[in-house]
Amino acid sequence: ALEVHLASRPKGVPRLENFAFVETALPAPAAGEVLVRNHVMSLDPYMRGRMSAAKSYAEPYALGEVMHGGAVGEVLESTVDSLVPGDFVLHGFGWRDHAIVRADAVAKVDPAVAPLGAYLGVLGMPGLTAYAGLLDVAEFRTGDTVFVSAAAGAVGSLVGQIARLRGAKRVIGSAGGPEKVQHLLDLGFDAALDYKAAPIGEQLAAAAPDGIDVYFDNVGGDHLEAAISAMNVHGRIAVCGMISLYNATEPTPAPRNLMQLVGKRITMRGMLVSDHAGRRADFIREVGGWVRSGELRYTETVVEGLRNAPEAFLSLLSGGNTGKMLVRLV
Ligand code: NDP
């Protein structure tokens, strides 16, 4: 099998030399295991954290070992009754073309219900993050004005659309560049801000003259500071990620306006999607229904071939994707 290993830990922005391709011989699956041929794998910003040795919520990748991540593949050989060759399964052994996986660590998926990539995006981890983060962590209510950053990405594009479909008063998104801003308007955002064109704080103040009630933070830094300044009394912030800091080599400055949390009685709450598995059924019913009816749209950026996965990952970190970043292996 061909595997991508962590060759060295990046300092700052990752480089191609941090990754290595290694050919390995796969054993036959032992009792309770299946052999899977990966068709599509996920690239996610949290993988940048796992490339570092620093303690975080996700275990660091081991140096010189194969990397991990979400993937969907086809069962080639099975030792259990519950899975047969030809079944498709979702599992955590991406960054390789074939994997031996414990059958109790995979979830069967149906390619007739949704394309395989959807199980890694709109109907998968990023989708649940958007759904639970907006509705439960940020406690979204009908009539709220919502601001979401990295809004043209996998999570952000769904946050904005779920808010609109759930009756937001106004949905504002930020992204880098004119094409992404146009994409947000096409998705039904009321306002879209290009953070590369002008300071985000000024743009947000102009786009939200009546303030915002919810901020879904994917970026941190200046975006978080802008959101706090625009926030209404009793506003709520779901802290999902802070991608503007992931490649930082020095401690980054805090938002300078945190004191506003006091007067505005702002709630700011961090989240991990793994805490929200209990919402999966609601999420699949509601978001799956919107996908079927065409009311919610999702975009994917698909890169072909495992050999191109490291470059695609670097591209994800610098905004080369619109919607979910995927690598197709088959
Ligand atoms: P995206 O599809 O949004 O891809 C990342 C995007 O981040 C890029 O496309 C780029 O878009 C943007 N970006 C990169 N650098 C910067 C920067 N310096 N300032 C502003 N934007 C930047 O990824 P996901 O949807 O998978 O993830 C979005 C966020 O959600 C991340 O912070 C991630 O860590 C977090 N997350 C958290 C989870 C949790 O459980 N807490 C679960 C899943 C995701 P652009 O071109 O607009 O700059």
TrEMBL record:
An annotated Gene Ontology molecular function? oxidoreductase activity, acting on the CH-CH group of donors, NAD or NADP as acceptor
Q: Does the keyword Zinc-finger apply?
A: no
The answer on whether this UniProt entry bears the keyword Oxidoreductase reads yes
Matching entries from Pfam families are given as:
ADH_N_2 (PF16884), ADH_zinc_N (PF00107)
SUPFAM superfamilies, sorted: GroES-like, NAD(P)-binding Rossmann-fold domains
InterPro entries assigned to the protein according to its UniProt record, in alphabetical order: ADH-like_C (IPR013149), ADH_N_2 (IPR041694), ER (IPR020843), GroES-like_sf (IPR011032), MDR_fam (IPR045010), NAD(P)-bd_dom_sf (IPR036291)
Task: Quote the protein name from its UniProt record.
Answer: Enoyl reductase (ER) domain-containing protein
Keywords attached to this entry: Oxidoreductase
Species this protein is from: Actinokineospora alba
| PANTHER family per UniProt | PROSTAGLANDIN REDUCTASE, PROSTAGLANDIN REDUCTASE 1
Q: Residue ranges of the Enoyl reductase (ER) domain?
A: 14-327
